[in-house]
Automatic annotation (TrEMBL):
Residues 28-410 form the Major facilitator superfamily (MFS) profile domain. CDD domains: MFS_FsR (cd17478). Keywords: Membrane, Transmembrane, Transmembrane helix. PANTHER family: FOSMIDOMYCIN RESISTANCE PROTEIN. SUPFAM superfamilies: MFS general substrate transporter (SSF103473). InterPro entries: MFS, MFS_dom, MFS_trans_sf. GO terms for molecular function: transmembrane transporter activity. It comes from the Bacteria. This is Major facilitator superfamily protein. One of its GO terms (cellular component) is plasma membrane. The chain crosses the membrane at residues 57-78, 115-133, 181-199, 230-250, 270-288, 300-319, 325-345, 357-379, 385-404. It comes from Pseudoxanthomonas spadix (strain BD-a59).
Length: 410
């Protein structure tokens, strides 16, 4: 199964065959996963800062949603373009540049004196993510040794773990010490830049080695589908991404406010509940890819999105204890979908790994940002409790997974 073009003259099948004969590049996979943890931890600090920012700048829920929309829409718009560009012309050292943009956004977020500059900080974080995700997903696939679902899950769990750490940092450090303490975590970004520089050197050497290697026979894989069928399947996958990320946007962006309003818990207690949900999401991500390698992507996609519907429908009516349990189940089950969806899409278009990764990461970010903004406006006009009742129906869209063709990995 092919992975991606490496230079403008190297054919994807030859690179794919070379990659499938390699063992898993454990060090590279660990480095790219660790840098994903750092990248998404810094992103999650924005999410964890929402109660502080809302109080300091007297923000409405719509304005809170606008912060999410800004950094996720920025990432959404740029990721497919960057993926398309790097499919044609690989850029091994673009990754540390993306982390540097995220670092600048983090520092600006710590000291921004106005809401407008908070949005500018969010935009810098979005640009960093747009640069990071398509190329890092490609490198995780190159380092996989053919175990694509496993490598994507390991890579994704780094990001989910980083996202889960954010609320803990907020509860333990930022809430007691104020927003400027966000700047203390610039050291983590510098570590990420170092890891990505190491990954960039490996990627450059890999490209040079692949360019010099003789062209072997193409590796066996999945028979290609007709272009019209590919377009139809991609549309179905994007509907599933919409269902997942619009729901997650409402659940995660307003979870602390929901707990505070409905159960009168403290901000720190709400952050700990958010950590539990995000940690369960990280565990679910790690499970989804390897299971998809074994049984196929479609059953994982089907079970993870539609399977979460009963728990989502029950959530708005649960007590505090059951809310904690249900959100952890939702995070665990629903998060297993993305790795399976991404690898499924990469198998549809194996010569366009960067484009596919950018499209799906970008669409996921865009739906998350749009969801946060739309639901914030809805919350201002109704209530957070009513928003949770509305979004509980979104996982039912998982029924469209029945339309996906069953395709076993090669």
């Amino acid at each position: 199964m092919s992975t991606t073009t490496t230079t403008t003259t190297t054919t994807p099948p030859s690179l794919a065959a070379a990659v499938t004969r390699r063992p898993v590049a454990v060090g590279i996979l660990a480095a790219i996963t660790g840098s994903h943890l750092v990248n998404d931890m810094m992103q999650s600090l924005i999410l964890a800062l929402y109660p502080i920012l809302k109080g300091q700048f007297q923000l409405s829920f719509a304005q809170v949603g606008l912060i999410t929309l800004t950094y996720q829409l920025t990432a959404s718009l740029f990721q497919p373009l960057i993926g398309l560009r790097t499919d044609r012309r690989p850029a091994p050292y673009s990754l540390p540049m993306g982390m540097a943009s995220t670092l600048c956004g983090l520092l600006l977020l710590a000291y921004a004196p106005s809401f407008v500059l908070v949005l500018a900080a969010a935009m810098l974080v979005g640009i960093g993510s747009a640069i990071f995700h398509p190329e890092s997903s490609r490198i995780a696939r190159l380092a996989s040794g053919g175990r694509h679902g496993l490598s994507q899950s390991v890579f994704q769990v780094g990001g989910n773990t980083g996202t889960a750490i954010g609320p803990l940092i907020a509860a333990a450090v930022i809430v007691p010490n104020g927003r400027t303490s966000v700047a203390w975590f610039a050291g983590a970004a510098l570590i990420g830049i170092g890891l990505l520089s190491y990954v960039g050197r490996w990627y450059q050497q890999h490209l040079a080695s692949a360019a010099r290697a003789p062209r072997p026979a193409a590796a066996p894989g999945i028979a290609p589908l007709p272009p019209r069928t590919v377009a139809w399947v991609v549309a179905i996958l994007l509907v599933l991404i919409f269902s997942k990320y619009f729901y997650i946007a409402g659940l995660s962006s307003y979870y602390t406010f929901y707990l505070i309003q409905k159960f009168q818990v403290s901000v720190q207690s709400a952050q700990l509940h958010l950590f539990g949900f995000l940690l369960a999401s990280a565990v679910g991500t790690l499970i989804g890819g390897p299971v998809g390698d074994r049984i196929g992507r479609k059953p994982v996609i089907w079970a993870s999105i539609l399977g979460v519907a009963p728990f989502a429908l029950a959530l708005p009516y649960a007590s505090l204890g059951w809310t904690t349990v249900l959100t952890m189940i939702i995070g665990l089950v629903l998060s297993s979908a993305f790795s399976a969806i991404l690898v499924y899409a990469q198998e549809l278009m194996p010569n366009r790994i960067g484009t596919v990764s950018g499209l799906f990461f970008g669409f996921a970010f865009g739906m998350g940002g749009l969801g946060a903004a739309v639901l914030g406006v809805l919350a201002d006009h109704t209530s957070i409790l009513w928003v949770y009742q509305v979004i509980s129906f979104l996982p039912l869209l998982g029924i469209v997974a029945a339309l996906l063709p069953s395709r076993r990995h090669g």
